[in-house]
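In response to reviewer comment 3 from the previous cycle, which asked for concrete evidence that the modeling workflow produces usable outputs, we include below a single protein chain processed end to end. The sequence was submitted unchanged, and the resulting structure tokens are shown without manual editing.
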Amino acid sequence: MKKRRHEAYIATKVQSNLGYSDVMRSVDDSLKRLQTDYIDAMQFHGGYLTEQDYKRLFHDGPLDALKECRQKGKIRYIGITNENPDHTLLCAVQSGHFDVMQVRYEEYNFSKREGFDIY
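The workflow returned the following structure tokens.
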């Protein structure tokens, strides 16, 4: 990756259930594994996050860790993933803390729902 870094956009994830120091360590570990000095988008791997999970991300250190990594130039954008585009994801949208959001989408399941004809 070192020689072709300028040709790539790197996005990776960090577990959403980690604390501040573990998030910092995870970012550094990713940088070493990827052999790069920065990551374009570092996302919290959300899964099925509850409102309580979002509160913990916002107030218990994980988000602060990624903000610090961004200030130090280790990451460019902060993101979050979520398996369920429901009201809890709205917490992330409304917070204004995230540059990138990845929501699970399954074309097969969506296209088979009654009343939807996407083809």
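The first helix runs from residue 20 to 34. We consider this sufficient to address the reviewer's concern, and the full set will be provided in the supplementary archive.
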